[in-house]
Amino acid sequence: ANHGLLITKNKPKRFHVVSRNAEKAAKAASREDIALVLTEKIGREQAFFKFGPENIQTVGIVAGSATDPDLFRELRDLGIDLFITGEPKHGAMYMARELGLNIFYGGHYQ
Hints:
- It contains three helices and eight strands.
- The protein has helices at 31-42, 69-78, 92-99; strands at residues 5-11, 15-20, 29-30, 47-50, 55-56, 58-61, 82-85, 102-105.
- The protein starts with a strand and ends in a 5-residue tail after the last strand.
């Protein structure tokens, strides 16, 4: 079941953007509620940087360890409320704070 979510590929081999259907766009989930669901499904997070909005309507996902500065700027420019990826690299927290991003790191092998 897709639970009212629409998954679209933004750029080839870059990341997936997950957004709610237009009818449900007015309802956002809190980043804490989303973190609880992610933790239940994939296990405890490696890190969770909370520098973006409290209410989440758009989510970007990349497998592995996606900490490229250009990717972080693209996430900000596209208005992604929450980014989910594997493991943080050195300096990721500083970039996330500077750009105002929420990033959930679920681990590399979960």
